[in-house]
Amino acid sequence: MNINKTAEMLLTADAPPIRVLWISCKNVLSQDFDRPKMLEAFKKPEIIVSVEQFFTQTVELSDIVLPVTTLFEEYTINASYWHYWLSVNEQAIKPMYEAKSNIEIAAALSARMNKLKPGSCTFPTEVDPRQWMIREFNQDIYDLFGIDSWEDLKNGPAKAKMHPASWHDLEFGTPSKKYEFRPDLCAEHGHQALPEFKEARKPYDKLRLLTPHTKFGIHSQFINIDWMAEFNKKPYCYLHPGAARERGISDGDQVRVFNKVGEVELEVKLTENVPADVVMMYEAWFKNNSYNCQSVVDDTSSDMGKYKTGAPGVAIHDQFADVAKV
Amino acid sequence: MACKNQYHQENGVIWRDVYELKEEIYPHRERAFYSLACNHCENPTCLNVCPVVAYYKRDADGVVVHEQDKCIGCGNCIRSCPYGAPRYNPVLKRAEKCSFCWQRLDDGRKPACVLGCPTDALQIVDLAEFDEANAVQYPAGFPRYPALNPSVSFRLPAMPKMIRRKL
Prior knowledge:
The complex is a heterodimer. Chain A starts with 5 loop residues before the first helix and ends with a strand. Chain A has 2 domains: 3-81 and 88-131, Rossmann fold (3-Layer(aba) Sandwich); 207-325, Barwin-like endoglucanases (Beta Barrel), CATH 2.40.40. Chain A is globular, with a radius of gyration of 23 Å. Chain A is an alpha/beta fold. Chain A contains 11 helices and 12 strands. Chain A is 21% helix and 18% strand. The relative contact order of chain A is 0.13. By secondary structure, chain B is of the alpha+beta class. Chain B has helices at 2-7, 45-49, 76-80, 102-106, 112-116; strands spanning 17-20, 33-36, 55-57, 64-66, 87-89, 94-96, 135-136, 154-155. In chain B, the strands form 4 sheets. Chain B has a two-stranded antiparallel ribbon. Chain B has a two-stranded antiparallel sheet with strand order 3-4. Chain B is globular. Chain A binds chain B through residues 226-228, 230-231, 242, 269-273, 275-276, and chain B through 1, 4-5, 8, 11-12, 14, 17-18, 28-31, 167.
């Protein structure tokens, strides 16, 4: 399945159709592209289960919600992209109320499935989260991070022994180890081996719509937390004064940002920080606020991404919309 | 947010906040800010107006400390501080303000805000020795109260060079 077209896949998969949707580690209704289509898609499965910490927009539309542990309540390993650090997350408190860790939930589900139909799930039926975490390590990982045991991480995070820059050893990460002007890898994955001009996506509305990350959160996380919301209370869109003048919009007006996908309503800030043909608003999930930039972002695929992630990316820089005063 | 993360003040009670510079001062919106809290003035008005001596100024480093357990919540300090540093805690019904993390200082550590600032825009300096040509006590937009003598110094933002296509 193309993970960047979740809604489309839910609606169109037919061999077999998707009857159960089990959501974990993801806030689909906030994060996935084309939210109006996702709202339709969520009507299709016979049952939707979400495993969550917060009452998210996804939880609102789920049939069953399983409370999952926070980082304070579980043992786990933190390894992020965008940096080379590895750290151990030690359990600080026992899980509150009925919360279970993701893998405990998976094991309980496996146990149930195997009871109903023996052999139907190969996931272990009983796991100890701490032991499970320890099993994530092996000698290669120890070598990569220069540690002897996972317990070394209790003294602090370890950094992978990898150079951050390409070509630091005068070799590229290509099959030939050289800069490839005509990469076979490219041709093998359906691209032209040599660069060629491709027409950009045709604008389908008056302004280019940008929905970048905010400094106040990571995707839909953290922005909803009370004490962080003190500094970032609600969403805004940013519009050039010239574009605003043409539309009779003043600073601080309530506006609609709309296109063929859908619309959102929010307050506008006028600034020359954005070009005159752009409207910008941050990706976010605010507590008690229905704002969602994916209501105006469609799921059209970009031309690359399949080789690295298994599915093409989404053309999030080629989205278009218009703005009007409410 | 480092301050809020350190102390988890009641909702709505903010010791240190970040204020966007108006476009008359800096030409781009949301691109230059003042991070402001208590200025630990040489002559603190909060201390002077407090009827129960809930404030004291430390000799060694000049930090103005509010002892909340002595506070009766009269609001004198909140009304008199022109910088708006003391805030009202609606749960305890008492005032509170930036402590300069004096407990952390005494332990040889930096205040949470200084530690948390990703651009090193906040630093502790010894004003008796701090001498920098580009630093001022009262930058544009920051209220001037010489009688209080706020213990702060601001490095002025460099004006950006505007390179822009004609639209």
